[in-house]
Specification:
The two termini are 41 Å apart. The chain contains 16 helices and 22 strands. Helix 7 (187-199) links the parallel strand 9 and strand 10. Strands 1, 2, 3, 4, 5, 19, 20, 21 and 22 form a 9-stranded mixed beta sheet that branches. Helix 4 (127-135) crosses helix 6, helix 7 crosses helix 8 and helix 8 packs parallel to helix 10 (249-261). It is α/β, with parallel strands linked by helices. The chain has helices spanning 2-15, 82-90, 106-111, 127-135, 146-149, 154-169, 187-199, 218-232, 242-245, 249-261, 289-293, 311-320, 331-339, 359-374, 380-387, 389-395, and strands at residues 17-29, 34-43, 46-51, 56-62, 67-70, 72-74, 93-103, 120-126, 175-178, 204-207, 236-238, 266-270, 275-279, 300-302, 323-327, 343-345, 351-352, 355-356, 411-414, 437-440, 443-447, 450-451. The protein folds into 2 domains: 2-69 and 428-451, Urease, subunit C, domain 1 (Roll); 72-399, Metal-dependent hydrolases (TIM Barrel).
């Protein structure tokens, strides 16, 4: 009976015509461990067959000599517009999510992107935009005045919690929180949002309160969020751990691993660069920033012009407001995070009119080129695990980040010998190379290394 079933299945696969077939590719699926040449049949946006047998397709992609992997999932992608989605697709990303800052109101945010996205998109219910709205802060992306300079009243704190809860009711993917951007936020306030996450059984994605070795620093910040998670039962994701821990990264990772060993649901992420980026007008650069971040004016790069700052230009641009790159992390600490088994790869990137940080365009290709091919610090399968199934598990979404029958047909096809990031700090808006095909929901959005015009198959992912 087993042999009869096998031959009937093989016959049905061979006789069926799929919407799209990826043939002769080296299929690597970190979830199942599949690591072999296979053909993949796709119809109606789903993977319908993975087999060594030949398949027929209305459209065929010949992937001979190429790696066929699940599409990369970016949990921390601030650039949520067409400009950024195009660079994401060329970097192999099929799902780009705004989980740290998040969005609010949620329904309006999703509606604005429906039918206009090259890749899948989604957001957490953002504590940052919810608090800015309640406190009438005049900042754009991040707070700059009212929400920075004074604490909330009890009535405001309740309204902020209600706003964040409304976003969860509208099926946001979790709660996003940036404690560092609200220096007047009390421990009780932050704890209360953790209780909301626990009550609603939603993960909370947190930019912690303080970085670095000077107390209160990264150790205090980790104790706050891990303690809140332990006390409430909330699932916790800590964003960009190297840019918070600096040279204390080994201790920070030990604390996170220890929390996991003792039963807490705690994850973290990193990007493969020695520089971060944020808004110069934000609370990050309040007095004392040089000591907290262990850097000075010349370590800051104004993205609009590429210039390094002086005391004079720092004051000028801080008043003006805008994005600045912070060159502040040792390479050996970045490598430690990238290669740590539990650390997810995420970009924390955005571009605006071609200006910004290279991580918006090159995060995933950089890991594959620098840490897998050149340094051999990671195996290819382990790198793919950090880009696909680990973020999918954090999202609790079983049908993305995997190559299996029934999964969403989000697939990245790349040349492991040629994949490379081209984006630099001076010229960040440069497409990655060596990724000839990217498929989103069964639709080819990158073909022979080129974005396809007028193709927007990305869908909004909700809880």
């Amino acid at each position: 009976m087993k042999f009869l079933t096998f031959f009937l299945l093989a016959g049905s696969l061979a006789g069926q015509q799929y919407d799209l077939v990826i043939e002769n590719g080296h299929v690597m699926d970190p979830d199942s461990g599949l690591d072999a040449v296979r053909n993949i049949g796709i119809s109606a946006g789903k993977i319908k067959a993975i087999t060594a047998k030949p398949l027929k397709g209305k459209q065929v992609v010949n992937a001979k000599g190429l790696i066929v992997a699940p599409g990369f999932i970016d949990l921390h992608s601030h650039g949520q517009d067409d400009e950024n989605y195009r660079y994401k697709a060329r970097d192999g990303v099929t799902t780009a999510l705004e989980m740290e800052v998040g969005a609010w109101p949620i329904d309006a945010w999703y509606k604005a992107r429906e039918g206009k996205a090259v890749v899948n998109f989604g957001a957490s219910s953002g504590h940052i935009p919810a608090q800015m709205a309640v406190m009438r802060d005049t900042g754009g992306f991040l707070p700059r005045d009212n929400a920075v300079n004074r604490p909330t009243t009890k009535a405001e704190a309740k309204q902020i919690r209600d706003n964040v809860g409304q976003g969860l009711t509208q099926r946001a993917l979790g709660i996003g929180m940036g404690i560092a951007y609200f220096p007047k936020a009390t421990r009780e306030e932050i704890y209360d949002i953790f209780t909301l996450a626990a009550e609603r059984k939603m993960p909370i994605y947190v930019h912690m309160r303080n970085p670095g070795p000077i107390e209160p620093g990264v150790v205090d910040s980790l104790q706050e969020v891990i303690g809140n998670a332990a006390a409430t039962g909330a699932s916790l994701h800590i964003v960009h751990i190297p840019s918070m821990a600096f040279r204390q990264l080994p201790l920070a990772l030990e604390m996170i691993d220890g929390a996991k060993r003792h039963g807490l649901d705690v994850t973290t992420e990193c990007y493969p660069y020695t520089a971060g980026m944020t808004q110069l007008e934000s609370a990050i650069f309040d007095p004392g920033w040089q000591e907290r971040l262990a850097i000075s004016y010349g370590d800051l790069q104004w993205t609009a012009t590429g210039e390094r700052l002086t005391e004079e230009t720092f004051r000028k641009y801080r008043q003006q407001g805008g994005a600045v790159v912070l060159h502040h992390m040792p390479e050996n600490m970045v490598k430690l995070a990238v290669t740590h088994p539990g650390v997810i790869i995420a970009s924390d990137g955005w571009l605006q009119n071609g200006k910004g940080h290279p991580r918006a365009a090159g995060t995933y290709s950089r890991v594959l080129a620098r840490y897998v091919r050149e340094q051999r610090a990671l195996s290819l399968m382990e790198a793919l695990r950090k880009m696909t199934v680990l973020p999918a598990q954090r999202l609790n979404m079983p049908n993305i980040g995997r190559l299996k029958v029934g999964a969403d047909a989000d697939i990245t096809v790349f040349d492991s010998a040629k994949v490379e990031d081209k984006a630099t700090y001076d010229k960040p808006a440069q497409y990655a190379e060596g990724i000839p095909y990217v498929i989103v929901n069964g639709i080819v959005v990158v073909k022979e290394g080129q974005l396809q015009a007028g193709v927007f198959p990305g869908r909004g992912l909700r809880r």
